[in-house]
Specification:
This protein has one helix at residues 13-24; strands at 3-10, 29-35, 40-47. The chain is of the alpha+beta class and 54 residues long. Strand 2 (29-35) and strand 3 form a beta hairpin.
């Protein structure tokens, strides 16, 4: 099974965590959080749904 990834970036951690929680409801898992001195970034992953076509 393959993975798919998303990343999110916000100036405030509270905004980032609210969005991460919304993604978690759809099966996304938090992989990493990074702060670059100005913004917080999160990397999320989930198992990619294979549709059998291809």
């Amino acid at each position: 099974m393959t993975k798919e990834y998303e990343w999110l970036g916000y100036k405030f951690m509270t905004h980032l965590m609210s969005d991460v929680n919304r993604y978690a409801r759809d099966g996304w898992r938090l992989v990493n959080v990074v702060y670059d001195g100005k913004h917080y970034f999160a990397v999320l992953e989930r198992d990619k749904v294979e549709n059998g076509m291809g």
